[in-house]
Design a protein that fits this description.
The protein has 148 residues and is α+β, with helices and mostly antiparallel strands. It has three helices and nine strands.
């Protein structure tokens, strides 16, 4: 059973499955996050949806680049979680199946190419409190070796 974070599903609401891949990107004691301005301002682990025919790791590399402008080293899978959410940018309800990886950011190639995203380096322990969802916080804590 894949652990759920966040609100339980709304009774009677239909949810489409949305697979995504996200990364904890450490450099020393700092972590690279993405700040997304809309639909709600939020700090997130970089990542996003997996396109049809795309592998999770390929999607991760693409999404990290789009949201941060960085390339990454070999990702290692940390785990997965799911959450139920309304996605206003797609006008749909989704059961988000989120696979989380740890990876090393290797090179900054450009500014983020995804509109409304900003790459933000912050102290990893501070990032725990900045992240916008419980699943992201859980996996950052796991990567840092913090209980709870």
């Amino acid at each position: 059973m894949i652990r759920r974070f966040g609100e339980p599903p709304v009774k009677g609401q239909r949810y489409g499955l949305r697979r995504g891949t996200y990364a904890v990107l450490m450099n020393g004691r700092d972590v690279l996050l993405t700040y997304q301005e809309a639909p709600e301002p939020e700090f997130q682990l970089p990542g996003g949806g997996i396109d049809p025919g795309e592998s999770p790791v390929r999607a991760l590399r693409r999404e990290v680049f789009e949201e941060t402008g960085w390339s990454i080293g070999t990702p290692v899978r940390l785990g997965a979680f799911r959450r139920f959410a309304y996605m206003p940018e797609y006008d749909r309800w989704a059961e988000k199946l989120c696979t989380i990886y740890a990876a090393r950011p290797t090179r900054r190639l450009s500014e983020p190419t995804e509109p409304g995203h900003t790459a933000v380096w912050t102290a990893a322990r501070d990032a725990v409190d900045l992240l916008g969802n419980d699943g992201d916080r859980h996996f950052l804590k796991l990567a840092l070796g913090i209980a709870g």
